[in-house]
Amino acid sequence: MAIVVQKFGGTSVADAEKIRRAAMRAISAQKAGNQVVVVASARGKQTDQLVTDAIELNPDPPRREMDMLLSTGEQQTVSLMAMAMDAMGYKAISFTGSQIRMVTDAAHTKARIQSIGAERITKKLDDGFIVIVAGFQGMDEDGNITTLGRGGSDTSAVALAAALEAEVCEIYTDVDGIYTTDPRKYPDAVRMDQISYDEMLELASLGAGVMHGRAVEFGKKYNVPIHVRSSMKEMSGTIITHEVPQMEGILVSGATIQKNLAKIGLVGVDNRPGNAARIFSHLAGSQVIVNDIIQTEVSEQKANVSFTIGRDDLDGAKKAIEEIRSQIHCESVFVREDIAEVSVVGVGMRSHYGVADKMFQALAEAKVNIDSITTSEIRISCVVDIDHGEKALTAVCDAFELNKPADERS
Amino acid sequence: MAIVVQKFGGTSVADAEKIRRAAMRAISAQKAGNQVVVVASARGKQTDQLVTDAIELNPDPPRREMDMLLSTGEQQTVSLMAMAMDAMGYKAISFTGSQIRMVTDAAHTKARIQSIGAERITKKLDDGFIVIVAGFQGMDEDGNITTLGRGGSDTSAVALAAALEAEVCEIYTDVDGIYTTDPRKYPDAVRMDQISYDEMLELASLGAGVMHGRAVEFGKKYNVPIHVRSSMKEMSGTIITHEVPQMEGILVSGATIQKNLAKIGLVGVDNRPGNAARIFSHLAGSQVIVNDIIQTEVSEQKANVSFTIGRDDLDGAKKAIEEIRSQIHCESVFVREDIAEVSVVGVGMRSHYGVADKMFQALAEAKVNIDSITTSEIRISCVVDIDHGEKALTAVCDAFELNKPADERS
Description:
2 copies of one chain form a homodimer. By secondary structure, chain A is α/β, with parallel strands linked by helices. Chain A has a domain at 3-174: Carbamate kinase. The first copy, chain A, contains 11 helices and 20 strands. The first copy, chain A, has an 8-stranded mixed β-sheet, sandwiched between helices. Chain A has a 4-stranded antiparallel β-sheet with strand order 13-18-20-19, sandwiched between helices. The longest helix of chain A has 25 residues, at 63-87. Chain A is globular, with a radius of gyration of 23 Å.
């Protein structure tokens, strides 16, 4: 019998009515002949309330205790959902992360899954139960409760699906799938039927918020198809899966725009081995996450180095750069906060020429000046003036026909 | 180093300020040279809210899931209290019932403690931590979360004190000790410095709500002195302990009144062996809890049987009696709802005559008619007309000088 894992996020279990709706989804899947495991998050704003309660007592709460506190949110949801299923006449049982031995490392608030004890779940599935597991949480080897950090419930669900060799991991959410780009910014965006893990990873790292990168990595590593779909509508969404040959025919699957960025440029840095390492290890040590890096040689002695970061990290980055500026003999530093980054992603780029060319052409026709360009194997990103950001995104989406399903593009 | 267990109930941890106050109590005890274990209940109305959430989804929720849900309340309190202590600069760590291996039977919502794994606690105590344990909860042998039912956190605390061989178990509450009677009903009631386990057990069964009987039984069985004291005031309360010789000099330690009672009389029951068993096993099978039973022989063939029950059980009891009425050949049934029961309790009764006499005399002088009388080794209870209840209590308290400390009585 096939096993299906269904994950419901906080907005999908926010109140009794939504918990009932989620319960009915699981029951339908069981009626259709599957064994069903549900992974649930904390209800709506519960986690925020608990964080507020904690901060009132301790502005910098110990992480172990924070995990102990926050894990109660999911525990409440899963027991309530089991009650809902029982009221509907179905056998259901809820488990905490500790109870199913979701063992993680001890990195509280951002723990990583190490192993899952699937036996207790499969036994209950075989007895006809729907099994409901608290997402986002696990325990370390000493039995301390841990949590998995942002997107943790998605990761729990995909990891469970992997451990149980589930047929699919369904992620129920308040959007009905993955779109070619954010429909709020490009109203003609269309939902993709499928997307590869690699593309989804690039999109996730570019801030397309539907799925967290770690869950996608898990799916890729353990071959778990992930179906992102609406908790409100009875329709298929987007399946994240391994690359299939037909995907290579699609030049660009999706596009993104990131606005909350800043760029720092270091002009006239000594062109010596080790200087780049010095700069970026010092930034990492200052907890600054660097996105894209561009280095260009201006002479045999001097190079220019620039990089983009999240706007939130700007103060930390400026401070870090000042600390090492004399060591790297940097002539001057400039900062740009008025930038946006427009990116296109697609595995088809690997085997097709002309994608970058087409993107630059589209931007040129829209009279958007390109500040800088970075690329990966399946991604091209252009930094542009923030005032030109939306226009640039629209131009790129139009050029790659992201307003049409992939099989209707020219 | 002596170990002190401190238990804080829901009203004593209802908000951040109260959690801080409780934390400071524990820190003071540690500063005074003790190793300190805190047992905490769910914050204020948290449990009520969770019950409401559950009922909304299932009017008759499975007990296992109810335990899963309700146990989150205490888990939140203990983590928050650990955060508060950390903010004050002290080492603290919180544990769930499962984490310290508080193993119970599998009777969800009213489980009984079977064993406690003290090692994890003593290790942390030896490392200088204040250990904060979630009260009211445990786990069964399969790792399912259980709860201990009413008064469960008191029981957790006393059981932990027993397992750790603590010097004392302090129960912090919103009253400042055990009074000779309820001060709301007899304003001159005085706080007792100490009381025996047996007396406290009788008082608890008579509805004096400060301590639950099971916790007291645990204390008696494992020789744990229980100190009931105020969470708001810096003063000693009442110590519940083994009987000491001086207690025997006190005829009556306390008095109670129970108003929420009903009495059922069965007139002209066949006076045959097994009839009483038939009646009361059928009532027990109908989940009716019977308080006092009086049986009197009216002839060789017939007896009258009457018993008192909680008013809430009246409908169930009447139904149960109708079901077996023909089997026991009961001639008629009467019900009294207009009664109260006034009781006096004291270990001194064991060795002194005249206590009952003094009580009846006091009631006679107050012109209170006695409907029926029941006694135990250390208790005398009189059923009276409910309109005479308060007057009867006052008369009895005055007669036994319950407005004075024990050593000032004549």
